[in-house]
Design goal:
The structure holds two protein chains of two kinds. Chain A is of the alpha+beta class. Chain A has eight helices and 23 strands. In chain A, about 20% of the residues lie in helices and about 30% in strands. In chain A, strands 7, 8, 9, 10, 11, 12, 13 and 14 form an eight-stranded antiparallel beta sheet that branches. A six-stranded mixed beta sheet of chain A has the order 2-3-1-4-5-6, sandwiched between helices. Chain A has a six-stranded antiparallel barrel with strand order 15-21-18-17-22-23. Helices cover about 30% and strands about 15% of the residues of chain B. In chain B, about 55% of the residues are buried. Classes of the chains: A alpha+beta, B alpha/beta. Bound molecules: guanosine-5'-diphosphate. Guanosine-5'-diphosphate binds next to helix 2 of chain A.
């Protein structure tokens, strides 16, 4: 690949191909990394226009889609082609003229592939924002340059930090409406930095843009000669995401035991799963939890192809030296670096159901590959996402509320604090009466 | 030397899909995998091999056969199923018609596309499947962009886009009540180009009609249709021979061809990468009739 900054990344694909005697397709970068990001903003900040702009300017939008939005724009009497329509999903929402759920969009450049979780910004949709944020490595928060930081921007930033999104981008939009004013941009940046200092986010960027004109979205704009930072797209293409994963604490939740018991594979026994943390290698000593028995990794493979190492987010099959009783829900880790094992859990939750959470409520809980049951033993406080105020007198959590709770589970949970590992630190609660997912939970270190 | 521990986007998508398949196998007792012989379901088969081999798949394959398939697709289907040694169940739209479950459409634009929904739901009920794995992608069509990876269907097989379960991290909730089922879409986050690149990376054979070949075609509604026994030509429509390939391979009555001389996988990928028209927009008559066509069909229980 011609990209000099590539650092040889991903050339395993190239070597795989060469080994198979095939050459890669010229001109296509299929070794590109994947970046998942979410977008948030208040209504009318220009989020849909921005996403439409990113898709359009990266030539991701197809002619039939453009024709389609041209048609719809004309029918609705819009004066120009409304790029925002490119991202409007379901019919009911189009009719209401708002985005009401999480929608996923895809685009690619030569450097990276992107998955956008497009989430709405109104307060009643906190749950959608949390959903979109749960898988994102980066979040773009739209700010209207005329209004600066509003309550919703604070909430978006707060949720991004709560969900441990490592990279935040404040896209200060509609710069054309403030005469491309450097002073205004700096004022907004200062205001946000002040607020963001209290948040737990590793990396924050500020970019002055106009989604409408395209300024600093894909191309640098002559309207902002004072701005020397990257364009939004360049930032998305280059932000360093490799170290976002936890490559230190080995965590391998067993998803499935593969035992063909066939004539061809009478003794095959593999433990299949997706690496949740650390790097596993053949020869490594491991402990199986919750039994606590030790053994050694003999092979790591997938469909018969041997691997030297497995790391997040690889889905692999691990073979162990000893015939132990290992089943789905168990976890492999290193002897001297083990997760917390507990039945009394402290967690922040986002409540996602019309039926409020109440102390003593009973739910099914899913954590990594394990289902169990849990009772809410305590509601410590409800958190006001706008002010950070903790309401300790709150009797319940309603739809879209965030709060801190304590749970007691029927079986031990093998976990890490969410801030240490987003996979082994997260869970969902499910209402057993109707099977709906009612809460997203992030585990805290025990006190 | 510092190791970078990077994972390419294709392998990351593969990791995710394999994880989804294994979760489904644990969450549901009686799943099936919808296998049409099209490239998306062909990729699903490879992912299922990655997820479960050397053991057998924990589910049979289900083909909803409209009776209007390209012969090349059926030939491929049977060959591939024999190779991988898994069980195939064929649910036939013709049977549904014969049993009076559905009524054949008439007229020049008649298609069995919509009838498939009934055949599929009947098969799910007959075999008591509680989950069906499909190859749909969110980039295919706008109604799909919001659908969950584990997508709940009520006892009528219907999807309620307004009332979907939140889906967080990779923690899938596959719980259903009796009579309900899950649709599971491991390729949700794949694009058309990803699928093609994966086919190339994994060296997966495809039905021949995905590659440029000579065929008798005719023009209708701005699309190129293959001459076939199930469509009658309208006045003014004339057959001609053209070098074409198919981007999707559904029912012959509603699947269009594109003029192309891409005879190899490399050439097809180069064309897809440069394409300016979406796959469905170019070649699926079924989505063109109303703006929200797909959404309507999905609500009813379509794939
Ligand atoms: N002047 C100006 N208008 C913008 C800009 N971005 C969006 N808009 C307009 O702001 C309105 C709301 O935009 P939209 O993308 O629908 O906002 P959303 O509710 O955040 O998705 C529309 O009329 C857009 O044309 C911008 O950069 N400059």
């Amino acid at each position: 690949m011609s990209d000099a900054t590539n650092e040889g990344r991903g050339d395993h694909l190239l070597s795989e191909r060469l080994a198979a005697g095939r050459r890669p397709v010229v001109g296509l970068v299929d070794d590109a990394e994947l970046l998942r990001f979410s977008t948030a903003g208040s209504v009318d900040d220009g989020k849909s226009t921005l996403i439409g702009r990113l898709l359009y300017d990266t030539k991701t939008v197809f002619e039939d889609q453009v024709r389609h939005v041209e048609d719809v724009s004309r029918r609705r009497g819009d004066e120009r082609v409304n790029l925002a329509l490119l991202t409007d999903g379901l019919r009911a929402e189009r009719e209401q003229g708002i985005t009401i759920d999480v929608a996923y969009r895809y685009f690619a450049t030569r450097k990276r592939k992107f998955i956008i979780a497009d989430t709405p910004g109104h307060i009643q949709y906190t749950r959608n924002m949390v959903t979109g944020a749960s898988t994102a490595s980066l979040s773009i928060i739209l700010v209207d340059a005329r209004h600066g930081m509003v309550e919703q921007s604070r909430r978006h930033a707060f949720i991004a930090s709560l969900l441990r999104i490592p990279h935040l981008v404040f896209a200060v939009n509609k710069m054309d409406l403030v005469d491309w004013s450097e002073a205004r941009f700096e004022e907004i940046e200062a205001e946000f930095r002040n607020f963001a200092a209290r948040l737990d986010v590793q990396d924050i960027a500020f970019i002055p843009i106009s989604a409408l004109t395209g300024a600093n979205v894909v191309e640098h704009s002559r309207d902002t000669p004072w701005y020397h930072g990257p364009t939004l797209l360049y930032h998305l293409e280059t932000v360093h995401i490799a170290s976002d994963r936890n490559l230190i604490d080995v965590r391998f939740p067993v998803q499935r035991v593969i035992r063909p018991e066939s004539a061809e594979f009478p003794d095959y026994r593999g433990y299949a799963g997706q690496v949740a943390g650390g790097v596993l290698r053949p020869g490594d000593e491991v402990v199986v939890l919750p039994s606590g028995l030790s053994t050694r990794i003999t092979r790591i493979e997938q469909l018969g192809q041997e691997m030297e190492a497995a790391f997040p987010p690889m889905s692999v099959t691990v073979h162990l030296a000893d015939d132990l009783d290992v089943s789905r829900g168990d976890l492999l880790c290193r002897p001297n670096n083990q997760p917390i094992v507990g039945q009394d859990l402290d967690a922040m939750v986002c409540w996602m159901s019309d039926r409020p959470l109440q102390a003593r409520g009973r739910y099914a809980i899913k954590h990594t590959t394990r289902w169990g049951r849990a009772v809410v033993t305590d509601l410590l406080y409800r958190l006001d996402v706008n002010t950070g105020h903790r309401d300790e007198a709150a009797p319940e959590l309603k739809l879209n509320d965030l709060g801190r709770i304590r749970l007691r589970t029927t079986t031990p949970i093998l976990y890490d604090p969410y801030r240490r590992n987003r996979v082994t630190g997260s869970f969902i609660l499910v209402d057993e009466a109707n099977n709906t997912t009612v809460a997203a939970g992030m585990l805290l270190a025990p006190e | 030397m510092m190791r970078s521990y990077c994972r390419s986007h294709l392998r990351t998508l593969e990791d995710e899909a394999v994880h989804i398949l294994r979760e489904l196998a644990a969450e549901r007792e009686r799943p099936c995998l919808l296998f049409s012989g099209g490239k998306d379901s062909i990729v699903l088969l490879r992912l299922a091999e990655k997820a479960f081999r050397p053991a057998r798949f924990p589910f049979p394959l289900l083909h909803v056969d409209t009776g209007h398939n390209f012969p090349e697709t059926l030939e491929y289907r049977d060959r591939r199923v024999a190779e991988i040694g898994e069980r195939l169940i064929v649910a036939s739209v013709q049977d549904s018609i014969d049993r009076g479950r559905v009524t054949e459409e008439t007229g020049p634009r008649a298609s069995r596309n919509r009838l498939q929904t009934t055949t599929l739901l009947d098969a799910i009920e007959e075999h008591q499947f509680d989950a069906a794995i499909g190859g749909a992608r969110r980039d295919e069509e706008r109604a799909r962009a919001k659908e969950r990876i584990f997508s709940h269907r009520d006892e009528f097989g219907q999807w309620d886009p307004k009332n979907q379960r939140p889906e967080l991290w990779a923690l899938y909730n596959g719980r259903v009540r009796r009579g309900e089922h899950m649709r599971v879409f491991p390729l949700s986050n794949w694009t058309e180009l990803d699928v093609w690149q994966y086919v190339e990376l994994e060296d997966i054979p495809l039905p021949s009609i995905y590659f440029a070949h000579q065929r008798e075609v005719f023009d209708r509604d701005g699309m190129l249709y293959a001459s076939n026994p199930y469509i009658k030509l309208l006045p003014g429509e004339r057959l001609r021979t053209e070098v074409v390939r198919f981007r999707t391979i559904g029912d012959m009555t509603c699947t269009g061809a594109v003029a192309s001389d891409a005879r190899t996988l490399e050439a097809v990928i180069a064309e897809v990468a440069a394409a300016r028209i979406t796959e469905r927009g170019a070649t699926r008559a079924d989505d063109r009739f109303t703006e929200a066509a797909m959404e309507d069909r999905k609500r009813e229980g379509y794939f």
